[in-house]
Amino acid sequence: MTETVPSLALPDWAWKQPKVRRALVDRDVAGLFRAAQQYAGASQSRIATATGILQGRVSEIIRGSRSVTTLELFERIADGLGMPDDARMRFGLAPRHPAGLDHLGASGRAEILAVYPSQSTARKDIAGLAATAREMEVLAVRGLGILGLNDSMLRAHIQEAKPAVRVLLLDPDCPAAERRAAEIGESLGTFAAGIRLSVERLRELNDEIGTVQCHLYDLLPTWRVIGLDSTLFVSAFGDSHEGHTSPMYRLAGSPHGALHRGFQRFTDELRRTARQVV
């Protein structure tokens, strides 16, 4: 019989420490291993046993001479350190147990159809719905990876199916654009140029199919939404990461749920107060 190695037991409060939360967002495995040493009294040998990583490599990771890049290793580290679901999602992984959403109640859970570690893992599901969608709604910052470039995620589906498309992008001339550019370490000129490129590509797309609208909003970006008919894919912008790298939630409307209805109301109101350019 194979013995199951228990995960490390960090106290619940340890996952809420600012430096641990930052290590999760940055996927700083060395920082997480140091937290295990500090808060759980774990030796490098104990960390190695819990995560299935050789002790020598654990030492190299802590020293900064080896990095972790594969999803499989991130999963093993999360399991070995006993990450709760909120920490897993901050780490860019899907929650391990559906019970992690129990606090939402039955109606809230009914709205959340799936949780993805990032947009790339949701791409297949998004493409499947986009192929037959009659309405598309996008709330983004620049939108280049969604529809502003020839190989963007939705552009080919839009050209083929010609759905009604409504897009909200950040106004490149507003103060929030300068703040967002600083957050992600870009010059305002480069950052704003990406938005203006998307707007021009949307004008071209509208000239081609005649069903595209684009509005510019002036709030600091928080939510990123891809709406395909009645299904929403929602992720968040942070002060050090883009929306496509954060966990993504697939939401469906529910008569008694608040999430889908709330995001729809938010985007409708944002559009009402935004400046239409296409």
Using only C-alpha atoms, the radius of gyration works out to 21 Å
- Element-level helix/strand string: HHHHHHHEHEHHEHHEEEEHE
Distance between the termini: 65 Å
The parts where pLDDT drops under 50 for at least 5 residues are 1-5, 98-109
Rounded mean pLDDT score: 85
How is the largest sheet built, in terms of strand order? 1-7-6-5-2-3-4-8
Describe the protein in words.
The protein has 278 residues and is an alpha+beta fold. The chain has 13 helices and eight strands. It has an eight-stranded mixed β-sheet, sandwiched between helices. A hairpin with a 2-residue loop joins strand 5 and strand 6. Helix 3 (44-51) crosses helix 5 (71-80). The longest helix has 22 residues, at 188-209. Residues 1-5 and 98-109 have low confidence and may be disordered.
Provide a brief overview of the structure.
The protein is of the alpha+beta class and 278 residues long. It has helices at residues 18-25, 29-40, 44-51, 55-63, 71-80, 85-90, 105-111, 119-130, 144-148, 155-161, 175-183, 188-209, 259-273, and strands at residues 112-116, 135-139, 164-170, 212-217, 223-228, 231-236, 248-252, 275-276.
